User: What shape does this take?
Amino acid sequence: MGTTADHPRRITMTPAARRVLEAAARLFYERGIHAVGVDLIAAEAGVTKKTLYDRFGSKEQIVVEYLADRDERWRAFLSERLDAAPPGPGERVLAVFDASRGWAAELSPKGCSMVNAHAEISDPAHPAHPVITGQKQWMLALFTRLASDIDPERADALARALMLLHEGALVAHGLGIFPDAITHAREQARTLLAQGDTL
Assistant: This one.
């Protein structure tokens, strides 16, 4: 697949590349992208720097793979929970918050990896930038589809409100501002959905 704004270049994963990616993912999330160098990644993965560069070409490509892999896993995780949600469009909206709460507890104790990465990668020219923004655009599109099933005429406004609640909760969770921020946002979303015509 060629490189486009929506589809950055990806590599084929060999066993050595997978070890590099697993080490890099853990280090990037725990310490920050800029704080982690290729020497440390190679050492943690048990490969040489030459192998790392042979597989990825650059640290920037490792970052692309790290974020794209997180995004793919999140989408699969969320899809399973949406499929298992009780019937009704409102319940599917709440299932997004439930999925985020489960993901955060299991895989994101320090907050959203995309938000954290954007704090370090704000240059649109960086090859990982489209992965970050694309993930959030996908989330807004998901909320818009769900909102369309609830109130087609006000879908955009409802989707944006839900997106703000969701993303704000992720940031508050990551910063530890107050306990169980995502559950709080879920209850606010429930109230918003119940308001109906007041949107």
Q: What stands out?
A: Residues 59-83 form the longest helix (25 residues). Residues 98 and 186 are 8 Å apart (CA to CA).
